[in-house]
Specification:
Aspartate Aminotransferase, domain 2; single chain; globular; binds 4'-deoxy-4'-aminopyridoxal-5'-phosphate; Aspartate Aminotransferase, domain 1; seven-stranded mixed beta sheet
Length: 404
């Protein structure tokens, strides 16, 4: 049984009030709240097992190293990677994409080569490629979408040329909620001999993601969007690809031997992990994974699906409601505008009622341009949200409408 009242007790912040109202936290696409067990794991490690990893012969260092490497194994199992060598810890999705744009770009791309992105990418999967374009003269092609917010697969097919070196697309849109057919997108890329990077920042918290089933070459996500701590993320890469890439940053940990004449690099995954890693954060990520696994990813997905359907039905009752994104296959993100109320006004006034939503361009300005709007209001649900909170959102919107 999915006992939502009991689950909510695991998240202390959900009991607080904002401006005298119970907090209704609907900004989970930006970051999720944290279960007590996750925060406890961070505190416990600082208090009882803190020491730098991979370096010391002493007891604490070995214990911290074991915890850190056990977390890598937890992540491996979570996304069903073949080996922990394929799990690189980073600061988050953004750093993972930058790491790849830099190293893949250096090794495999030159002037005139091309990367294919989609129109619904987050800036973190656009700007790193633009920086590479400025540095090396690569080209960027963009998969368009229909008015429902679904990628046009026929148009995608037409974008390939002999200069295509990589496809990099989001699994789930942080604006439209669209869940893209990444397995098919990857298969098409492979048919052209091109590897594929999946931005799973908005999918990993909500659904089972299996890198072997998808046959993803690279997949990236952030811990903080899935009940883990800030500052930690993952770059998954097939071993054959990671092996072929040069290091990203230089420093401690990533080397085998250093001399002023010649330096050799460490094996995977350490080749990409220069400096002291956030080994406390990786323990937190592993705890967050244990937490969602204990609830069951399928149960979480079912709960969020039900809640999203309920929210869409209720929001549609509101006169002047425009929902952006009507994809057949969608996740728990809903973007909307009501009448001509500015998204910023709507967000600010909802906040006064204790309702936290996101407003603005959601770091997806090219998508805003495609939609013909400057920004939207976004409600995004997590495993602890309730129908009562959806009702509070709807009542809040109706109250704001009366003010206009
Ligand atoms: N990609 C998508 C789809 C996202 O929603 C986000 C966060 N909004 C990111 C990438 C960037 O994640 P982070 O800021 O954790 O690096």
């Amino acid at each position: 049984m999915y006992d939502i009242a009991k689950i909510r007790e695991d998240f202390p912040i959900l009991a607080r009030t904002v401006y005298g109202h119970p907090l209704v936290y609907l900004d989970n696409g930006a970051t999720t709240q944290k279960p007590r067990v996750m925060v406890d794991a961070l505190v416990n490690e600082y208090y009882s097992a803190n020491a730098n990893v991979h370096r010391g012969v002493h007891y604490l260092s070995q214990q911290a190293t074991e915890l850190h490497e056990a977390s890598r194994e937890t992540v491996r199992r979570f996304i069903n990677a073949c080996s922990t060598d394929e799990i690189v810890f980073t600061r988050g999705t953004t750093e993972s994409v930058n790491l790849l744009a830099s190293t893949f770009g250096d090794e495999f791309m030159g002037a005139g080569d091309e990367v294919i992105l989609s129109v619904m990418e987050h800036h973190s999967n656009i700007v790193p490629w633009q920086l590479l374009a400025a540095r090396k003269g690569i080209g960027i092609k963009v998969i368009p979408m229909n008015d429902q917010g679904e990628l046009l697969m026929d148009e995608y097919e037409k974008l390939f040329s002999e200069r295509t070196k990589l496809v990099s697309v989001t699994h789930a849109s942080n604006v439209l909620g669209t869940v893209n057919p990444v397995k098919e997108i990857i298969a098409k890329a492979h048919a052209h001999g091109v590897p594929c990077l999946v931005d799973a920042a908005q999918s990993v918290p909500h659904t089972v993601v299996d890198v072997q089933d998808l046959d993803a070459d690279f997949l990236v996500f952030s811990a903080h969007k899935m009940y883990g701590p800030t500052g930690v993320g993952v770059l998954y890469g097939k071993e054959k690809w990671l092996d072929a890439l040069p290091p990203y940053q230089g420093g401690g940990e990533m080397i085998q031997h250093v001399s002023f004449e010649k330096t050799t690099f460490n094996e995977l995954p350490f080749k990409f992990e220069a400096g002291t890693p956030d080994y406390i954060g990786t323990t937190g990520l592993a705890q967050a994974i244990d937490y969602v696994n204990a609830l069951g990813m399928d149960q979480i997905a079912a709960h969020e699906h039900d809640l999203t359907q309920y929210a869409i039905d209720r929001l549609r009752e509101i006169p002047g409601m425009r929902i952006f994104g009507e994809a057949a296959h969608r996740g728990s993100v809903i973007s909307f505008l009501v009448g001509n109320i500015h998204h910023f006004d709507m967000g600010t006034l909802l906040d006064r009622l204790g309702i936290a939503v996101r407003t603005g361009h959601h770091c997806a300005q090219p998508l805003m341009q495609r939609l013909g709007v400057e920004g939207t209001v976004r409600a995004s649900f997590a495993l602890y949200n309730t129908r009562d909170e959806v009702d509070a959102l709807v009542a809040g919107i109706e109250r704001v409408m009366k003010m206009f």
